[in-house]
């Protein structure tokens, strides 16, 4: 018996609803954000999201079931990654949509994440010009594995936990542009504040690797 076309249409909406259901969790959205920086082991993801390994695995299973995430095996280890670049772009679009539609989100961002004196207004092309001409130092505060997976051109990696111990290695008079995992990343906020308190003219960028990649700008994967 031929299935009516209306039923096929309903099936399409059910499949889309699976994606919507997968997104209906703050923890799963945070996992998507982390995976947009590169693949990670479930233990890393559990630690970064403040969950047990079992809870993180359950959320990752939902993301994989909705085709938003995929896995790669290396011996006994299983690594998670986004299912494709289109998922990363979808995450950026969802984030922008939320900020556009939700006044509460805008209020939180304005009050806590967009301090005018420390937030850079430079565009991506401006940043590229600044670092190519050596007018500014570009500092990536993400962990080494994320830096190795891809970073902004000419960036120097100094993971946030080591920043305070290496403040003396950073030129005090040269402007420093700081980034980590995007506009919601606390490491960049704290790192920029730490640098400014030590006398370094530091500013935090609004973007990170996913935004740079979405703009079709080249990344660097050299160490």
Automatic annotation (TrEMBL):
<keyword id="KW-0238">DNA-binding</keyword>
<dbReference type="InterPro" id="IPR051011">
    <property type="entry name" value="Metal_resp_trans_reg"/>
</dbReference>
<protein>
    <submittedName>
        <fullName>Metalloregulator ArsR/SmtB family transcription factor</fullName>
    </submittedName>
</protein>
<dbReference type="InterPro" id="IPR011991">
    <property type="entry name" value="ArsR-like_HTH"/>
</dbReference>
<dbReference type="GO" id="GO:0003700">
    <property type="term" value="F:DNA-binding transcription factor activity"/>
</dbReference>
<dbReference type="InterPro" id="IPR001845">
    <property type="entry name" value="HTH_ArsR_DNA-bd_dom"/>
</dbReference>
<dbReference type="Pfam" id="PF00581">
    <property type="entry name" value="Rhodanese"/>
</dbReference>
<dbReference type="InterPro" id="IPR036873">
    <property type="entry name" value="Rhodanese-like_dom_sf"/>
</dbReference>
<feature type="domain" description="HTH arsR-type">
    <location>
        <begin position="8"/>
        <end position="102"/>
    </location>
</feature>
<dbReference type="GO" id="GO:0003677">
    <property type="term" value="F:DNA binding"/>
</dbReference>
<dbReference type="InterPro" id="IPR001763">
    <property type="entry name" value="Rhodanese-like_dom"/>
</dbReference>
<feature type="domain" description="Rhodanese">
    <location>
        <begin position="132"/>
        <end position="221"/>
    </location>
</feature>
<dbReference type="InterPro" id="IPR036390">
    <property type="entry name" value="WH_DNA-bd_sf"/>
</dbReference>
<keyword id="KW-0804">Transcription</keyword>
<dbReference type="Pfam" id="PF01022">
    <property type="entry name" value="HTH_5"/>
</dbReference>
<keyword id="KW-0805">Transcription regulation</keyword>
<dbReference type="InterPro" id="IPR036388">
    <property type="entry name" value="WH-like_DNA-bd_sf"/>
</dbReference>
């Amino acid at each position: 018996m031929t299935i009516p076309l209306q039923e096929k249409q309903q099936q399409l909406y059910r499949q889309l609803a699976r994606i919507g259901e997968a997104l209906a969790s703050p923890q799963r959205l945070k996992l998507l954000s982390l995976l947009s920086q590169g693949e990670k082991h479930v233990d890393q993801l559990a630690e970064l999201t403040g969950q047990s390994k079992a809870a993180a695995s359950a959320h990752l299973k939902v993301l994989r079931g909705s085709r938003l995430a995929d896995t790669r095996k290396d011996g006994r280890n299983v690594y998670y990654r986004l299912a494709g670049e289109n998922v990363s772009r979808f995450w950026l679009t969802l984030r922008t949509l939320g900020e556009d539609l939700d006044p509460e989100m805008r209020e939180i961002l304005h009050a806590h994440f967009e301090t005018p004196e420390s937030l850079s207004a430079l565009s991506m092309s401006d940043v590229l010009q600044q670092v190519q001409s050596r007018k500014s130092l570009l500092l990536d505060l993400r962990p080494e594995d994320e830096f190795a997976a891809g970073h902004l051109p000419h960036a120097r990696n100094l993971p946030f936990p080591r920043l305070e111990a290496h403040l003396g290695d950073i030129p005090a008079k040269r402007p420093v542009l700081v980034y980590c995992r995007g506009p919601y990343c606390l490491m960049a906020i704290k790192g920029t504040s730490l640098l400014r308190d030590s006398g370094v003219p530091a500013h935090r960028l609004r973007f990170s690797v996913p935004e740079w990649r979405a703009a079709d700008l080249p990344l660097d994967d050299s160490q």
